Amino acid sequence: MQPEFCTLPWQGGSVHIELAWVGVDDAAAPLMVFLHEGLGSLAAWRDTPEKLCAACGWRGLVYSRPGYGGSTPRPHAQAWPLDYLQRQAWELLPALLQALGVQGRYGLFGHSDGGTIALLHAARHPLTHSVIVLAPHIMVEEFGLASIREARRQYLEGDLRSRLARYHADVDSAFWGWNEAWLHPDFGSALSLGAISLELKHIRAPILAIQGQEDPYGTMAQIDGIAAILPATELLKLPRCGHAPHRDQPQRLTEACQAFSRRCLPPLPPQRDLP
Description:
By secondary structure, this protein is α/β, with parallel strands linked by helices. The protein is 40% helix and 19% strand. The chain has helices at 48-56, 84-99, 113-124, 142-157, 160-165, 171-182, 187-190, 193-200, 221-229, 245-248, 250-264; strands at residues 4-10, 13-23, 31-35, 59-63, 106-111, 128-134, 207-212, 234-238.
């Protein structure tokens, strides 16, 4: 992906957002916005957006949130607010779409934190035509917090910092923003099932929710909880799959996205020869 940059007002200043357009070069094709995980970025997606867009006939918008990838880093003395997922969904993403001149309907493809952002955004933005979420979080589970604590240990003592550094201009900005927010004792009140339920019930777009059965960051309660609020949600539970279905089960994910798109999105109009 060849990145470009967009400047947005944000939190009393401005931020540069790293982004790329991928997929079908046709304005009539469905637009899908890709929202990365808590330690992800545009580069960390690797070729997943291009492959999915090619397989499903989508245009794709991929970007790094502030603090990640090549976007403006988080000031090291500044902690993410505990409602950072809500702010990304309700403030940053709408501002980015407006700045890029996106008009009409669009879909959301979110992984982990990005899945939560996708759900929260769709709840308040009826132009969302579809939502695909991989390993989303709608509540804090002790099961997942144990893995986040282990990630902290691996970052300080193992090779996690060096592995992440290839995807972020400021790797400490990316890691500590995410890790410290999630491990804050009050984070569970910001990401509680009760609070998220009040939002999710307003989603009108079709949802495909996918979870790996070996995900160390969340149990099936996450996507089962979405279906309990929105019974029309399509669930896909993948065996032999961890936290990243697009890496662990790429073929199965692609097939599920293709079928979901055929059911939920209008096909491209046929091309006509000019007279």
